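Take one protein record:
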Amino acid sequence: MTVPAGRWGHSHEEDHDGVEVYRPAGYDFPPARGRAWIAVAPDGTFVELAPGRADVPEPVEGTWVLGSDAGLESAPADARVADVVHAGPDRLELRRRPA
């Protein structure tokens, strides 16, 4: 399943059953302090932006692997792995795998 490119905000208010819900930039989020973001590039790579000083998102270094087990054997040892539960233009759902 392909994740649409763009910037996605963690809509933690909608998380359910171990699934993290993300909404695209421009979504009318309720007020929250320190919302996390994921920036997805057109080639499928992405960067996690975690709340930093003064509540300004700061990039978190690392590698993400999405989807099935295909390719996991070549992933870096410190890779973050998540399964894509749903990917649409207005909602992204990820289930992170334990490290």
About this structure: The chain has no helices and eight strands. The two ends are 22 Å apart (CA to CA).
